Amino acid sequence: MGWFAVGRVLVFSAVTASAVLLRPLWGGAWANLAFGGVVAGLVLALEHLLRQTPMTRLFGAVLGVVVGLAFALAIESGLYWANSSDRRVEFLHSVLMIGLPYLGLCLGAKNGHWLEPARLMALFRAAGPERRYKVLDTSVIIDGRIADVCEAGFLDGTLVVPQFVLRELQLVADSSDSMKRNRGRRGLDVLQRVKKMAGLDVMISDVDFPEIREVDLKLIELARTLQGKIVTNDLNLNKIAQLRGVEVLNVNELANALKPVVLPGEIMNVFILKEGKEYNQGVAYLDDGTMVVVDNARKMISRTIDIVVTSVLQTTAGKMIFGRYVETGSVSAPSAPPVADRVGAAPQA
To answer: Where are the beta strands (DSSP E) in the chain?
Structure first.
């Protein structure tokens, strides 16, 4: 950073000194000195704005200006038959020389990410199936389950990890709070695990949107640009992305969809872990974390018992199962197979 500061001082001094020596204004030395200082300030402000802009966008903007200028000159040469002394023709020439380079600048800067080396190399490869991009959110990386989903082969295409997500993950890993620091480091470990998986394409994207501050909105714009999907477990990001027309893969929704289906009247084998809120209730948990509330099971804490499912409640937070413990020998065997055969019994205490 010290060299940048020295460079800015030298640029400011050189511009102001040249204004004083060459005197572009008719006024005295002080007027030219002030004019040089304003020009130097504008140059430094432009440098500050362009500092975070990716090189692909800058190159795309320059290329767009050149192409727009070439089109303007080609159109002007095609209008050689027009009367150049006519003011309407002169105005048309001015609009072409200003408008077309400006359009090239805007379009080139917006689509500069297509000049990335990976995309340029893809143009020369043999035609194959379209790449399906999945943009990873910070929350789903920290959560860690995305590695198991990838290892099981449920995600295809290319996993995209933006640089701004990596920066946010690094800030969490460097946090002074021990819990946040551990979560951030776990996220970095998950990324390393995913990158080492065979047959999985992981791409670190340098595409950024400096005009957008919120990371969630950056993710939405990147997914829209790549025509891909966002992988997250953030409910708010899920809703905003869907409102903006971007598809979302929610890991929490996948986990809820994979929870076992139970029907009233079936028998389950569960391990009563603790006492419930109501009188004479016990609470158990299935292997996937589903809570099971059992009536008449308070005295069976720390024991594995068979219960009869009475009802199933689906909430926004997940699924809850309600059951009833009946003394051994008083429950007739149901016609359906026991649920324990499908979900597995809890271990003995």
So the answer is: 133-136, 158-162, 201-205, 229-232, 248-250, 267-275, 281-285, 291-295, 304-315, 318-325
Angle between helices 55-78 and 87-110 (to 10 degrees): 160
Are 188 and 241 found together in one domain?
yes
Range 221-224 contact pairs with CB under 8 angstroms and sequence separation of 24 or more: 222/135, 222/160, 222/162, 223/133, 223/135, 223/247
Q: List the chain residues with pLDDT less than 50.
A: 126-129, 330-349
The alpha carbons of the chain give a radius of gyration, in whole angstroms, of 32
Domain containing 32 equals: 2-114
Residue 311 phi/psi, 5-degree rounding, is -160, 160
Spatial distance between the Cα atoms of 83 and 97, rounded to a whole number of angstroms: 17
Are 133 and 250 part of one and the same domain? yes
* Contact yes or no for 21/4 (Cβ under 8 A): no
End-to-end CA distance of the chain: 61
Q: What is the pLDDT of residue 22?
A: 82
In the chain, the number of structural domains is 3
pTM, two decimal places: 0.51
CA separation for the pair 343, 162 (Å, rounded): 38
Residues 195 and 293 in one domain: no
Residue 102 pLDDT:
87
Give me the pLDDT at residue 322, please: 93
The pLDDT assigned to 112 comes to: 74
Alpha helix (H) residue ranges in 79-162: 87-110, 117-123, 138-143, 145-151
Query: Which string of DSSP letters, residue by residue, matches 266-317?
Result: -EEEEEEEEE-SSTTEEEEE-TT--EEEEET-GGGTTSEEEEEEEEEEEETT
Note whether 77 and 184 are same-domain residues. no
114, 143, 163 - which closes a domain: 114
Q: Is residue 330 helix, strand or coil? A: coil
Please, which residues have CB within 8 angstroms of residue 218's CB and are 6 or more apart in sequence?
Answer: 162, 164, 208, 209, 212
- 91 shares its domain with 60: yes
